[in-house]
Structures are given as structure tokens and as C-alpha cells.
Amino acid sequence: MRIHQLSPLDAVASLKSTAAGLCCAEVERRLHEYGRNEVEKVVRAPVWLRFIKEFTTFFSLILWVAAGLAFFADWSDPGQDMAKVGYAIVTVILVSGLFSFWQEYRVEQTLAALRKLLPQQAQVLREGKVTRVPAEQLVPGDIVHLEQGDKIPADCRLIEAFGARVNNAAVTGESLPKMREAGPSEADNLIDSKNIVLAGTLMVSGQAKVVVFATGVHTEFGKIAHLTQTAGEEVSPLRKEIAHLSRLTAILAVLIGLLFFSLGWMIGIPFWKAFIFAIGIIVAMVPEGLLPTLTLALVLATQRMAKRNVLIRYLPSVETLGSTTVICTDKTGTLTQGNMMVRRLYLGKTLDSPAGVKEKKGLVDLYQPFFLTAWMCHDLKETGGHGKSAFLGDPMEVALVEMARDLGSGLPVYPRLDEIAFDADRMRLSTVHQAPEGAVLYCKGAPESVLPLCQHVIIDGEIQLLDIEIKASIVQAQDAMAYQGLRVLAFACRKLAVGYDRERLEEDLVFVGLAGLEDPPRPEVPEALRKCQEAGIKVIMVTGDHPGTATAIAREIGMVKSDNPTIITGEQLRRFSSIQLQLALDAQEVIFARVVADQKMRIVEALKKKRHIVAVTGDGVNDAPALKAAHIGIAMGIAGTDVAKEAADMVLLDDNFASIVNAIEEGRAVFENIRKFLTYVLVHNVAELIPYLGFLLFKIPLALTPIQALSIDMGSDTLAALGLGIERPDPQIMRRPPRPQSERLMNWPLAFRAYLFLGLIEAAAAMAAFFFVLNGAGWKYGQNLAAQDPVYMQATTACLSTIIVMQIVNVFLCRSATRSVFSTGFLGNSLIILGVISEIAILLLINYTPWGNSFLGTAPIGEEVWGFVIPFAAAMFILEELRKWLARKRLLNPSSRSDV
User: Fold this and answer.
1) How many angstroms separate the CA atoms of 625 and 237, rounded?
2) What is the dihedral of CA 679, 682, 687, 693, to 10 degrees?
3) How many CA atoms lie within 13 A of 639 on its CB side?
4) Dmax over Cα atoms in the chain, in whole Å?
5) Which of 72, 179, 344, 753 falls 20 to 30 Å from 128 in CA-CA distance?
6) Whole-angstrom distance between the N-terminal and C-terminal Cα of the chain?
7) How far is CA 295 from the centre of its chain?
């Protein structure tokens, strides 16, 4: 037989222990055999190795090679300023690598949080003496004393219990405290047994003596910790897309660079010129500023989300939210307020709300015994003094006492004389108090336990005989409350004679009423769920609570509208095959109730197999594995444990489901904004590439040097691109379905617009300005110019300046792929305005300061060049507005969808 099915004495004996506890020598032996009572750390790669790995990704390796070649070129052929190019590329690698490395510490932080949850000290009986020892020194067979407020240090079997109630929410997800007793259990599942307490949970009330049967990694807590540490980190869709884009652009850049290097060498271009040309091709085509700009954009997005009560711990999760197709949400504290509240009262013959009772004059006085029973009969601790008191203990009892205080103002406090503690068999609590008229017993508990003890009932302030008809009406009222998902308690009282018989206290009681309690839904949740439905996002409740309670709340908030939703309990889920679970998840309305840690993660994995992007909410230790396995884990900031917060990608500061919907809206905007600044960046990449192609194919001077190209990528464009990254969400963004996983960040419409339309216009303007300066100085085709020739330096400056001017126009064009600039506006985004100002400042710096001239190899250009460039900028504006007009006409078809 398993330990929970044994008697207390047999349970102790099965662990080779005694009523006096273990001897010190046996403790040492078991400590050596079973290990310390702590969460073991999974062996991982050294920190230094993980640090180096971040700088050896495919994208980084390409840039390392480019930087190395630049330094080699500078060493072999000094005077070409290739060292500056090398240093700039190394800076890009360092910024990107450091950004990625910080997340590697998340597992260690999770482990530290797990350890904090276990108590540091425990009261242990060893060799007949009670002593306090560090919790990590507990071993199987130790006898431990537990009191109200204690954290359970290990998995234990009760051998004595006095009013013991345990809150298992951190491990099982069950929101209500559970009674615990020492007798043998017939339950099959050890976790469901009433004589078992689990490591990491909390003693809400009472006292207990327990024997430890599992420590460290062998506890349920330890198993969850192991799952959390070993669960694979889900790579965000954004990281996948950036990796794909990085590989694509890097491979294209290297292949084109090598191709034109070979062609140049074959047609007689000197080796070093061809070599510098190849590096220039790589620099021009690889968007070096993409990752740093992306990082900054995500950081600013997280700041916006923080104002909407969402704290982002992992930057790529910002965008992941936008592609979410399913949210698996907890119930308690997320969909609900996390506080028990009395919702319905039945007083004699009236079923009403507490507010309705309060409005009916005289009703409170007529049913004073009910309010006295709710006020007196509890096991709470009071702090702060009467009148300004706060109550600590079972949330359900707190709700009842506060209800009585609010409705029955001026209730007296009678001294307690006696108590018959609550236990699982009796399902009720009785207390005896000294009232002015003598001793009075107050009783509350499950209706099926209290009602059979009642012989009388109070109706309209009068005590009447409890006949069959009245009892039927009470049961009917109880059923009506239960159907609403309320937890129903019955209340009774009795005046006691002098010298009462304690064995017969709970007899001939007077029934005084029923109370229905619930954890009420948050008022914002129904509207948030409606938005999810409009946005094509499925919401699934996954809770440790009772299926009836879960279903009632789901109906109240609008998550369930049909008569027959799919309700799956943890016991049923345990018998499901993977295919059965995936088929069950196809149902329109799904609720999972009474689930445990590994089952929640199994649900997440099944949804991922169905190719969903999954967001999961949670607050307890039991939620940590699922939070980590999901595409995005969402922890509760108020009620959440440290473990859940460290395992999650984001934290809800207000524990409110509605904040998730706000975050999804921001996440969708982030993806669209990334496309906007990607378009913006790729346009100038074309303008940087064309000068190198002209240099090779037409034997003209190189119109843009590598260091000048990098000055655009990492300098002038950064703030403006960042401004595109923080554009406000489109008002219609939550009325569109989630983005398909197959949809690439850079799709064909984006590539056509960036490379073959805007990019070619900008490149044509830049090359035209280059030749405008050369021709004005009398240059003839075929004439070679030295790198330090003032005419050549002015011409490259004109090319560089034209690209920057065109990008100033382009930033406003890129605010939308379809809406006119006159619709999106020129103002409204302060960072874009700041970016434009910075681009103008950089233009002046590189043109008219000795430092800019020296560093970038530029020379001042005259007013006639600016006059030449402006018409090209105007033409780009007009042509793009025409393209947008044609695109809007095409999108009048309702089935069409904007790219951005």
C-alpha cells in the first residue's frame, strides 16, 4: 500500500522511523543517501562558453570575417581607411551579442527563486526532542511540527492534525484552502489525498505533526523545479524571423561580394581595389544597424507596455504577443479578482444579494442570529483592533466576517468558551461563546452537514419548526446558488443550557441562513474577451479549481456561451492520448479543471503541435514549466510567486487579463513597425549597393566608400528608423486575425517596394548627384581619381548627402504601406521628428566640419548640389504617393489585407 493509504503508525513504521523521531546517526546516513532537501541544479555549459556562443552566430561570423578582412586590407594597403570600417563592424557585433547574452541567466534566477520558496528552518522531533534545523537537512522519516503560517518544508504524511488547512495553490493551482486530516485515505492519487502536505505550500490554519517521506528533487515541488529547468526555451517567432533575414542577407551579401570580386579581378582590376570593393558590397548589403535598432525599438515598446501594466522581461516576447493565436489563462486572480466575496444570501425565505439585504429595512435586525453566526464562528486572527481590524486566515472566512461587519453594524464580541474544530468528516465548525443571556453555540459548514442537525428555522424573526416544505425550499435555494458556481455554506445556532453536555452540542440547532460565496470576475474581462474573439484569438481556461466553479465563471464573463462546452478534468486528461488531446482542443469552447503542473505543460505542447502561438498565464510554482514551455509565459505581478515571474517572459503588474489584450495590441503593432523600419533600412541598402556595381561594371569611380556606407547604417538613419519602430497601433489592428506563422517578416510586397521601387529611386538620385559634381569639375569618363582628390571627395559627399536627404523623405513615406502621408501626418511621432533633426545635423557635420571631413573622407559641397537634389526628393514623394493610391484602390476588396 502507498503511504497515504496506511494508518499514521504504519506510515511512520514504513519509513523506518519512530514516534520519537530519528537518531542523529540515522539522519546523517539518510542525508548522505538521499541528499540535501534542496532543488538540485541542472549541469549546464559554463558561463564563459555561453557568452562566447552569442558572438559566434551565423550573422556574427559573417561580420567577423568582414571586420577581419577590413583590418587585413588596412594593413596591406594603408590609407584606404579600412581600419575604421573594421572597428565599426566589431561595434555592431558586440552590441548584438551583449543584447542576447543577458537572457542566459534566466534559468539561474528561476532556480534561486525556487530555493526561496522553501522554508529555511523547520521544527523537527529527533531522539524525543524538538529542535529547529535548516530545512535542507531534513531527511525521509523525520517527524516535523507544523503551525499556522508555516511553509511546508518537504512532502509529508500527517500523523496528527488539529484544524489543519493547507493552501496548495502554489503547487496544484487550487484557490481554496483544503482541510487535512491524519487518517488513511482511499484516494488513488497521492496529491489528492487529505493526509498529504506538499513542499512549498502553506499551512493556513491549525497545527499538525507530520512525517517526511520525500525531500529535494523527489518532492512534487522538486519535480516541478526539474521540469522548469529542463523545459526547452521556445524561440520566439521574431527571433526566428530575424535569424532567417540575417542568414538570407548575409549569404546574398557574401555571394555577391565574392562574385563581383572574382569578376573584377578577371577584368583587370587590381587585387586590393577588387578586395575593398568586395568588402564594400558586404557592408552595403548587410543591414548592420538592424539588430541594434530593433533592440532599441523593443525597449521603447516595453516602456509603453509598462504604462499599461505589462512588464516585459524578454524583449522578443513583445512581438510574440502580436502573433498569439491561443491564450491559456488561469482563473483565480487573472479572470477573477482573487478575493472571496459573498454574492447571495438566503435568510428564511429570501434569496438576495448582500446589497439587497442591506436595502430592506429591518431585515438585518430580524436575522441578527445569522450575522452573529458569521461574525463569531471562524478561526481568523484579528489585527489592528476592533472597528479598524483586518483579518488574517482563510479568504472565505474573511469574506463572511467582513460581510457580517458591513451589514450587522455594531455586532458585539462575545468571549469564546469552546470549539469543535472543522474536519473533513464533519464538514463544519462550531464555536461556543458567552453571551449576556448565557452560552450560545454558533455553527457553519456544508449544507448537507449542518441542515440535518437543525430542528427549527428563523423566518421573519420568529423561530419555527423546520418542516419538510421549508427544508425543500432551503435545498432549492442551495441548488440555485450552486448552479451559479457559488460555494454554499449553511449557518445555525443554539442557546445552551447551564452545564451543557459537550458531546451533544451540535443537536437541535436553529437554521438561520445560507451564504453563497465566489471569487468575482474582474469587470474588465468580458470586454477583453470580446476583443480576443474579434482578433481571432482563442482563450482556454486552465485551472486547478473545481469544474463547476470554472464553468460558472466562464459563463459569467462570456468565455462560454453554448450549453455544452468541452470540460476536461485532470483525471480525464491523464487518460487522454496525445491525439485525443489535440482533437479535444479543436472544440470552440474548452475548459480544463483540476489540472496539475505537468498536465498544463502537456496542454501547451499539444497546442504547439497544432501550430498555435501559445501564451500562458500563471502565478504558482506549478505554472512555471508551462510558462517556460509556451511561446510566451505571462506571470502575475501581485499574486505570482518568484518562480513564476522568473520563468515568464512578461509580468502583469495588475494581475488583470485585460492587460494581456492591451499587450497583444502593442505586440501586433511592433511587428508592423518592424516591417516599416525594415523597409526604411533596405531602401538605403540599395542606394549603397549601386555605386559598387557601377564601379565594377562601368569602371567609374566608387561613389560611396565603405566607411560612408556604415555612417548611414549606424549613424544618420538610427533615430528615424527607431521612430518608425514605435508608431502607434492601427485602430483596426485588433480586428484582424493573428498573423500566419508562414508569413515572413520580409515578404515579396515589402521586398519589391524597398528594393525595386524606393531603393532604385534613391540610388538613381544618389548617383545623379555624384556625377553632377564630377561633371561640374570637368571629369571625363575613364579618368581615375585619387582617394584624397578634393573633387572625388566632394562627389562622394554629394552621393552620401543625397542618400540622407532621400531618407528624410522616406521616413514619412514608410509610416504606412498604403495610407497617404497626408493621412499619417508629418507630426505625431516625436522620435521621427528628432530623427529628422539629427539627420540634418549629421548632414551639416559631415559636410562642413573638419572632424566630419577627416573621419568620413568628405569635403564641403556647394548650394547648387542641394538645389539639384531637392527635385529628386520631391519625385520620390510623388511616385510613392501614386503607388499608395493604386494600392488603396486594390485593397477596396474586403478580402485584401495591408502589409503594414
Assistant:
1) 20
2) -140
3) 23
4) 123
5) 179
6) 64
7) 19
Q: Where are the alpha helices (DSSP H) in 698-742?
A: 706-711, 718-724
Give 742-793 pLDDT, tens digit per residue: 777 778 889 899 989 999 999 999 999 999 999 999 999 888 888 889 999 9
Least confident of 20-24, 235-239, 705-709: 235-239
343-513: what fold?
Answer: Calcium-transporting ATPase, cytoplasmic domain N (3.40.1110)
The answer to whether residues 447 and 476 touch, using CB atoms and an 8 Å cutoff, is: no
CA distances from 790 to 97, 361, 585, 854, 856 (A): 39, 97, 71, 12, 13
Q: Model confidence over 610-667: pLDDT tens digits?
A: 999 999 988 776 777 888 888 888 988 777 666 677 778 888 888 888 888 888 888 8
| Residue in this structure with the C-alpha cell 555577391, named with its chain if needed | 256
Is the Cβ–Cβ distance between 806 and 873 less than 8 Å? yes
**Measured distance CA(95)–CA(438) in Å, rounded:** 79
Give the cell for residue 756: 525595386
| Cα–Cα distance for residue pair 237/317, rounded to 1 Å | 9
Selection from 114-128, 320-334, 602-616 with the highest mean pLDDT: 602-616
**Looking at 74, 81, 150, 330, which residue is catalytic?**
330
Express each pLDDT in 85-113 by its tens digit.
778 778 777 766 676 566 445 445 544 55
Percentage of the chain with pLDDT > 90? 37
The C-alpha atoms of residue 250 and residue 248 are separated, in whole angstroms, by 6
Q: 3-29+122-230 — its CATH code?
A: 2.70.150.10
Its pTM stands at 0.66
At 618, list the grid cell.
500563471
700 vs 41 pLDDT, higher one: 700
CA distance 338 to 895: 42
CATH 3.40.1110.10 location in the chain? 343-513
Tell me whether strands 202-214 and 155-167 are parallel, antiparallel or unpaired: antiparallel
The CATH-assigned architecture of domain 319-338+522-662 is 3-Layer(aba) Sandwich (3.40)
Binned at pLDDT 50, 70 and 90, residue 157 comes out as very high
Mean pLDDT calculated for residue range 117-130 = 80
Q: Which of 41-55, 619-633, 710-724 has the lowest mean pLDDT?
A: 41-55
**Bridge partner list, 652:** 310, 636
Active site residue 330: yes
Please, where in the chain does CATH 3.40.50.1000 lie?
A: 319-338+522-662
Distances in Å between the Cα of 63 and the Cα atoms of 256, 306, 568, 679 are 15, 34, 52, 22
Q: How many CB atoms lie within 10 A of CB 138?
A: 28
CATH 2.70.150.10: which residues of the chain?
3-29+122-230
Distance CA 284, CA 253 (A): 8
- Residue 792, all three cell numbers: 572625388
717, 722, 725, 726 alpha-carbon torsion, rounded to 10°: -140
Give the whole-angstrom CA distance, residue 576 versus residue 591.
Answer: 15
Phi, psi dihedrals of residue 430, rounded to the nearest 5°? -130, 135
Give the pLDDT score at 118: 46
**155 three-class SS:** strand
Q: Do 763 and 690 touch, CB atoms closer than 8 A?
A: yes
DSSP tag of 756:
I
Strand partners, 774: none
pLDDT band at residue 114 using 50, 70 and 90 as cut-offs: very low
For residue range 434-466, list pLDDT tens digits in order.
Answer: 999 999 999 999 999 999 999 999 998 899 999
> What DSSP letter does each residue of 611-673 carry, written as one string?
T--EEEEE-SGGGHHHHHHSSEEEEESSS--HHHHHH-SEEETT--HHHHHHHHHHHHHHHHH
Burial class (CB in 10 A: 0-12, 13-18, 19+), 257: buried
